[in-house]
Sequence to fold (666 residues):
Amino acid sequence: MADDAETSRDLAAARRRIEQLETALMRRTELLEQKQAELAAVRGSKAFKAASFANKLIDRLFPLHTRRRTLLKLTARRLGAIPAALLARRRAANGPPPDERYLSECTPPAEYRRWISKHEPDAAALTKQRGHRFGRSPKVSVVVPVYNPPAAFLDAMIASVREQTYGNWELCLADASTADHVRLLLEKATAGDSRIKVSFLSENRGIVGNSNAAAALATGDYLALLDHDDTLAPFALHEVVAAINDAPDADFLYSDEDKIDTHGDRVEPNFKPDWSPETLRSRNYICHLTTLKRTLFDAIGGFRPGFDGSQDYDLVLRASERAKRIVHVPHVLYHWRMHAQSTALVKGSKNYAFEAGKKAVAEHLARLGIDATVHDGAVQGIYQVVYHLRTQPLVSIIIPNKDQVALLSRCVDSLAKSSYANYELVIVENGSALPETHAYYRELQKQPHVRVVEWTKPFNYAAVNNFAASQAKGDLLLFLNNDTEAINPDWLEAMVTQAVQPGVGAVGAKLYYADDTIQHAGIVVGMGGVAGHSHLFYPRQAAGYMQRLRITQNVAAVTGACLLMKRDVFAEVGGFDEGFVLAFNDVDLCLAVLKAGYRVVWTPDAELYHLESKTRGYEDTAEKQARFKREYDLFHLKWSAFLKAGDPYYSPHFRLDRPDFALKAA
Fold:
């Protein structure tokens, strides 16, 4: 009899699973049909047909890779300078448009110049560095492939290495140039300094072959990668070796960087997060200056053919898979020159490089045994990794609620439109007084996947969610506020595919206020004293600092308004700390996840509205303010070491009193 009962339960479970999958397939089919209809409408529009005709006409009259096409591009650029000049005059007269700073990913040049003058070593500090003696002084081989650089750029690159305050280096160059001036300059350089080595190649082997030829000359313990038209800061190798002394097991190091514009000015600093694997799969945020231990470089086989233009991206992805320790050196050590042929200036100048980058990410995922597809992102150079789900684990969506039927029903209705079907809805009732609330509950519970559980004790956000988690049946737990509304149908699937990846402990979504400005795009721990939202109030369409609003990335914490995690990870870290009644409980949970060795991920592929504070109100009474102060003090007591060290995903050079990645003034 027991066997028969068990068989019946299994059959019932199998039927439910089939129904769930059929529902999911139906919803995805509907979504596909909707998108196909939208695409057909676009293609049938007069604007699209006119643009297609114009493109075909241009390709016929000005074929690609011809002098006529080049002249057309130059003319277009010159014409484009006219509105830019008019805009500059308007700015001078009226100031920038109100939201313009939010739409730019770059630090204003004047702000950066002030930062340089206050934070980088002056002449006296550089002199002191030259006299410094490290406990370990490894030889660093600076590896440079050379192919027809302008004389001034090549001279500047060599000079920047010679001016290093750390002396135990060698410069290894492999030259395949056809321009006569290059060999003369390199022969002169080697004659004046025995630390400079050059291999003159009989033919151009491409960026990969030339780079490997330069690396073959190296005798150093570490290889630092430099392009023939870029430069190093004079203190670059000093900071790299200082980091090696601090972390002797480091075999992969990278630094911050900036660009040199066509006037020779330093612009567009890129202050990077510490090691962030999900971020790296979205874009090559590591880039320059990359320094690898020689044994690691050899173990992965150096640069690989077939990745020209993104050979460095492929290299760092492979190195990250085998590195013992990856260290971020938070200093601007590399200056990337902007000129007509450089991707630093013109993204489309090397389209093949972005295709190679996509291939590099795809092969990286394949080597790790991760089933995923890599798509082009919103702009060139960023990528969207879509992880494949072969099964749909049950997600328990936990929503605490007290009355607020209008908000709750709006949230629940948006869930019903999700393409991910295998979820249960657990509503935690907490003291609702309105009859319509309980009537709504009765209607909801007619659906087999909806349950209402009652919390009869005084409200404590952490305790309420811990109680609900104990009642939940899912392998994944989604903590969701009742004042949220899902926007894109595949939002939950986008979160689930991240949450089930090995090593991921928590996942957050992109949340907007009702006016389509950013409410949540990841939390910076330490901002405002405890934690704050980055990119707060940016427009929905903004790219964010270094495209961060467009890419899946690692962060220190995500908001509990929409937080997904595996049930076993939640149990491992002990759930929510009930000492945090209302504030900081989500940040505390995420820091516990990090401490346990997991990663926290934020994805822009899950979008929801969040009408923040509509339910619980504001800290506007003495009692609430006293409670907030207690929780503030508790957080500082518990996480003082983390606060002192700083958020690893937010540069120490950024201010913590504002959310827009502004540089510290002093």
Remarks:
- The CA atoms of residues 210 and 651 lie 34 Å apart.
